[in-house]
Amino acid sequence: MGKTTNKHRPIRKSRDWTSLALIFGSLFSLLVAGCAYLDSIRERFYVFDPVFLNSLARDAVTTHGNATDSIVKHILSNLTQTYAVAENEQPRVALQTEITPEHWVMSNAGGAMGAMLIIHASITEYLIIFGTPLGTEGHTGRHTADDYFNILVGHQWAFSAGALEKEVYGPGSVHFLPRGTVKQYKMHEGCFALEYARGWIPPMLPFGLADVFFSTLDIPSFYDTVRITARETIRNLLIGKV
Ligand SMILES: *[C@@H]1O[C@H](CO)[C@@H](O)[C@H](O)[C@H]1NC(C)=O
Ligand SMILES: *[C@@H]1O[C@H](CO)[C@@H](O)[C@H](O)[C@H]1NC(C)=O
Predict the structure, then answer these.
(1) What CATH number is attached to the domain comprising 89?
(2) How much is the pTM?
(3) Which EC number applies (predicted)?
């Protein structure tokens, strides 16, 4: 009896491990294939157009010069009208267009600090105004979304490893950062931008929030960021905008 058990046990064990590895392997392959498929159709979910947003930013800058407040109001009012719908129609997109001070939240990420006004958030896109009257500098983060940073007021400098000259972006220009790439950037005094990201937004959130846990311990700003982002993402999901 004892002899037989001893003989068979190792065989059965290795069989168990083999089937377990097969199951995990298959599940993992399915997951990878699912992600690759979703990634291949991500453009279907996009609501905004980077070319339109840049012409809106340029118009606002041309009309209002360096008056940040009027520029932001111009952008919000245009977005509201552009994406407005007739009564009783399904909204085309959920936008947060309130601009009172309590709608701005502090953001610390990659060593840079500024305030942001979250206009739109979904699984595949976000649109914010980001900037600081003081200036700031940091790491862009390596992201799963393309980033279009439309300068509204002031100047931003940037460079990627290997470049020995800086890139300079002024009002109306767009600093494009393709997903997966990183740069060091510096926003000078009084620099504000309309930032549009498209791709996969949820994997970007840890970068945007890590500094709360490892540096600032600014729980109220963390709470507001998560609350507004979650609320806007859910509002968009409910109207079928992923
Ligand atoms: C919004 O801005 C775009 C781009 O500048 C412009 O073509 C369009 O006419 C504006 N729409 C409204 C309602 O102001
Ligand atoms: C904004 O523009 C006005 C008029 O061109 C100029 O007088 C003022 O110094 C500028 N302000 C800043 C902060 O650049």
Answers:
(1) 2.60.120.10
(2) 0.88
(3) 5.-.-.-
Give the position of tokens 């504000």: 192
Tokens of 192: 């504000």
pLDDT in tens, 89-142: 777 889 998 888 889 999 999 999 999 999 999 999 999 999 999 999 999 999
Total domains, the chain: 2
What's the first-to-final CA gap in the chain, in angstroms?
A: 62
At residue 26 the predicted structure's pLDDT band, cuts being 50, 70 and 90, is very high
For ligand 2, atom 8: residue with the closest CA = 66
Average pLDDT of the segment spanning 60-88? 91
Residues of the domain holding 71: 47-238
Residues 26 and 137 in one domain: no
94 C-alpha to ligand 1 centroid (Å): 18
At residue 49's C-alpha, the angle toward residues 228 and 122, to 5°, is 25
Q: Is the CB of 55 under 6 A from ligand 1?
A: yes
Of the ligands numbered here, which is closest to the C-alpha atom of 75?
A: 1
Written as six digits, the tokens of 176 are 């494009």
